[in-house]
Design brief:
The protein is of the alpha+beta class. It has 3 domains: 228 residues, no CATH class; 69 residues, no CATH class; 67 residues, Alpha-Beta Plaits, CATH 3.30.70.260. The protein contains 14 helices and 6 strands. Strands 2-1-6-3-5-4 form a 6-stranded antiparallel β-sheet, with no helix packed on it. The radius of gyration is 24 Å and the shape is globular. Keywords: Membrane, Transmembrane, Transmembrane helix.
């Protein structure tokens, strides 16, 4: 009996081993972080582990359809034909992904309305442990994921931030919405089956960072944007990606593939030169090809537009809930302090960098309040 290991499985196993090594070996994440930080929008030990392990698992699961027995069984299932189409699952993944991400933003707004703080604030929970969330970088799903993680792992190493403190403040609906994340992942796995090498690896990568982005960062985080972009690329540019894949793998077809690419480039140049009427069909074709890139630009512009629109450039508004022994705030250049029931509202000079102020306040207010919120100021980074 011949048993042949799928060529993708060793790669998946190596990635899982790498992720496991980061978990067990202290300091290894410091060497990995320069590579993961740009794609994960501020890397941490927990995100590094999750990235490599999930990437490896995704690649391995993408090979299920390569098994002829499994593929034949799936094709014989008494279900509608559309449910056997990987392109359907790719579009379903995008829909579920966007629904989960946008729903989290709605809950972010609802959470702030219940706490009676502005929508354009960074909410920092200090009790029982530090975690934060904001409209531009949401950690609501991370809070649920952290609770699950704590039930599975009895000893979580330092450097892994679970964000479970948020769960005490978030409405129950976020737990129901969290179910969409594993459902989205399953749909992504089904969309990966029997794809060519470049499409498979690219979609496995973007699916991985997309799922991580849903949990840690939300719709406007770099990983989630990467996940959306990856799905759109495969929906609208699948033939191009497969053509490149064939060019890389099938040596005997390189000349014909190169001639096709040259013809495509000639058409693009004719459209760019303004010959739209003569190339109406081609224009429609290339508008579809350009759609993922247009969507990417729109999301990035929207992210920065919200960041600047919601910024408070003149001062920082700090709201401290159930605060006591707040003398430590005297070290900051405060403009005004008011009390409103259980809240202390402090207006701080805009001379500070937002991130530095946020981190310093976490130290100053540690053990002295339940939570605090700080208005964001993107101008402080300029």
């Amino acid at each position: 009996m011949n048993f042949k290991i799928n060529k993708y499985i060793p790669l998946g196993i190596m990635l899982i081993i790498l992720g496991s090594s980061i978990y067990f070996l202290n300091g290894m994440d410091q060497f990995i972080r320069p590579f993961t930080q740009p794609i994960l929008m501020g890397s941490s030990k927990g995100k590094d582990i999750l990235f490599f392990v999930l990437f490896g698992i995704t690649i391995i699961l993408s090979t299920l359809g390569d098994n002829e027995g499994i593929y034949a069984y799936f094709k014989k299932l008494p279900i509608p034909k559309i449910l056997k189409n990987k392109e359907f699952y790719l579009k379903l993944s995008l829909f579920l992904f966007l629904f989960a991400a946008i729903s989290a933003l709605v809950v972010e707004l609802y959470l702030r309305s219940t706490l009676k703080v502005s929508w354009n604030t960074i909410l920092v929970i200090l009790n029982p442990s530090l975690t934060s969330t904001s409209f531009l970088h949401s950690h609501l799903y991370k809070g649920i994921f952290g609770m699950i993680l704590k039930t599975v792992l009895t000893n979580i190493p330092s450097g892994i931030h679970t964000g479970s403190s948020l769960s005490a403040y978030t409405p129950n609906i976020i737990s129901l919405l969290f179910i969409l994340i594993p459902i989205t992942y399953i749909s992504m796995i089904l969309s990966l089956q029997r794809r060519k090498v470049l499409s498979r690896l690219f979609l496995s990568f973007t699916s991985t960072i997309g799922i991580i982005g849903l949990i840690d960062g939300g719709l406007f985080g770099t990983p989630a944007i990467g996940g959306i972009y990856g799905m759109l690329i495969l929906i609208y540019n699948n033939k191009i990606v497969d053509g490149i894949s064939d060019y890389m793998v099938k040596k005997e077809n390189k000349n014909s593939l190169m001639s096709i690419l040259k013809e495509e480039w000639k058409l693009i140049k004719s459209i760019l030169s303004g010959k739209i009427k003569e190339n109406k069909k081609d224009l429609d074709k290339y508008l579809k090809i350009a759609l993922p890139h247009i969507a990417l630009i729109i999301i990035i512009v929207l992210r920065f537009s919200i960041a600047f629109y919601g910024a408070s450039p003149d001062f920082y508004e700090l709201t401290v809930y159930n605060g006591h022994d707040l003398d430590g705030l005297n070290q900051y250049n405060t403009l005004n302090v008011t009390d409103d029931g259980n809240k202390t509202i402090v207006y701080i000079s805009n001379e500070y960098n937002e991130m530095e102020l946020l981190n310093n306040l976490a130290i100053t207010l540690d053990g002295k309040c339940d939570w605090y919120s700080l208005s964001w100021n993107v101008y402080s980074y300029l």
